[in-house]
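User: I've been trying to design a sequence by hand for this structure and keep getting stuck. Would you show me what you'd pick, starting by listing the structure so we're on the same page?

Assistant: Good idea, let's start from the same input. This is the structure you sent:
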């Protein structure tokens, strides 16, 4: 369902990332490192102080006599796109692959999926996205490019640290100051730059004045970020999902109440969850029509409220109307808990449970170290490095053949290099992706808009490696 200025059936996202849109503790992330442009500017910007006739020096990229003390930006940092097909040709050599890389710099360190779009960050900070570009999520004008079936290097982002893909927008943490930039749909103010014009915004904009951001989570119509001391949210607030005690849409970041020293963060469709005081007490707020807040009732909250799982949480993931968390104490280290909507077994709740207002132990049979949630599907990496998925599998997004509308937790067969193990997961509306610790990436599920990055439009339940990042 969709209505003006509000996206309905959305999809969740990993981040790290973000599982639907979740941010994880550093111990669960691949090592961050991204070289910043010495000017500190987005590639393509004219450095302040440059004389208009000498905006950039393509030959030497050094400071010269008429430049202000700002390093020139090399012209090849921002190759011209072929307007017709965005493919590599004589006019735009290297546009798709981005700047060349060698060795470990070519490995991926962060992935996220949301809606029908997927993004990945290379270790050197270059961002790649593919899939739907209906709102400019790929960083390109949607009137020129509506979708992309293979990874496309961003013309704007070369210093990314982490990415989170929402329903129709994308956000990254970037640069040495760890600011947040977003692009895509601004229909619900989810970009955080003070606007809500309902137009596509393919060029990144700065979300408020946030710095030193540790994690970002993009949802259907709102976005949140966490710093060392607080959670900040912006965008639609119809159900109180921003956590500021109001239901007023915010075009720039506002601080959520109560939550301090957040350790994990997840954004679902119209609701938010985060841990407070490190990785311990779990709070949720926003929409609660099927118990997706896990607080024991079905009343919406505009203020963060402690869930019935009130200690030992170090990971949380949120979907359309359900959520999952990983417990580290009490009822079993690594146990998966679920709450909210359980239709099609999406929350892996005990047999016969259609929904739960409280957090309950899931039917996932093993301890896990990572959990991610999509629209109506969820996946986890268990302690034995096996990927297991459950929920809706109509397009193969649970990695199971034959296709079905509901599957219980089932192992997914992924062929990795002999020394590689699963490290991150990212789930979109009807597709899923895996990042291995050697920097390789695999996707499976729906592919109607190229979201698997396979160069085709064919759906499959078999994880297929995504290439084209070098």
């Amino acid at each position: 369902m969709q209505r003006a200025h509000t996206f309905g059936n959305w999809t969740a996202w990993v981040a790290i990332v973000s599982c639907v849109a979740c941010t994880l503790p550093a111990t669960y992330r691949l090592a961050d490192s991204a070289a910043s442009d010495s000017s500190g500017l987005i590639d393509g910007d004219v450095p302040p102080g440059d004389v208009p006739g000498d905006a950039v020096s393509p030959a030497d990229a050094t400071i010269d006599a008429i430049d202000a003390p700002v390093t020139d930006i090399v012209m090849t940092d921002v190759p011209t796109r072929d307007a017709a097909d965005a493919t590599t040709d004589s006019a735009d050599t290297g546009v798709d692959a981005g700047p060349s890389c060698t060795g470990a710099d070519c490995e991926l360190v962060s992935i996220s999926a949301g809606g029908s779009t997927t993004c990945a960050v290379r270790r050197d900070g270059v961002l790649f996205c593919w899939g739907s570009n209906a709102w400019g999520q790929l960083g390109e004008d949607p009137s020129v490019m509506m979708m992309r079936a293979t990874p496309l290097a961003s013309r704007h982002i070369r210093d990314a640290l982490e990415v989170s893909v929402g329903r129709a927008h994308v956000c990254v943490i970037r640069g040495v100051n760890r600011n947040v930039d977003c692009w895509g749909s601004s229909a619900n103010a989810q970009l955080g730059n003070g606007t809500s014009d309902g137009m596509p915004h393919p060029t990144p904009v700065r979300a408020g004045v946030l710095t030193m951001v540790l994690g970002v989570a993009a949802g259907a119509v709102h976005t949140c970020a966490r710093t060392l001391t607080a959670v900040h949210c912006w965008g639609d607030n119809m159900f109180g999902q921003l956590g500021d005690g109001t239901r007023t849409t915010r075009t720039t970041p506002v601080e959520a109440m109560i939550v301090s020293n957040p350790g994990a963060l997840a954004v679902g469709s119209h609701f938010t969850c985060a841990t407070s005081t490190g990785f311990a007490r779990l709070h949720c707020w926003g929409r609660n029509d099927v118990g997706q807040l896990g607080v024991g009732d079905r009343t919406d909250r505009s203020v963060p409220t402690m869930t019935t799982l009130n200690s030992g949480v170090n990971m949380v993931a949120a979907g359309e109307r359900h959520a999952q968390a990983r417990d580290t104490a009490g009822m079993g280290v690594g146990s998966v808990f679920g709450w909210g909507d359980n239709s099609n077994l999406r929350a892996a709740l005990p047999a016969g449970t259609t929904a739960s207002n409280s957090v309950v132990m899931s039917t996932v049979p093993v301890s896990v170290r990572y959990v991610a949630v999509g629209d109506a599907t969820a996946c986890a990496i268990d302690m034995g490095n096996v990927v297991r998925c459950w929920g809706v599998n109509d397009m193969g997004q649970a990695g199971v053949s034959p296709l079905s509308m509901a599957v219980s937790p089932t192992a997914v067969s992924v062929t990795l290099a002999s020394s590689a193990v699963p490290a991150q997961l990212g789930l979109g509306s009807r597709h899923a992706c895996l990042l291995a610790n050697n920097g390789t990436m695999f996707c499976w599920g729906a592919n109607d808009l190229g979201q698997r990055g396979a160069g085709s439009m064919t759906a499959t339940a078999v994880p297929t490696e995504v290439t084209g990042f070098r």
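That's my pick for every position. To get oriented when you compare it with your attempt: Residues 1-20, 23-95 have pLDDT under 50 and may be disordered. Residues 346 and 391 are 4 Å apart (CA to CA).
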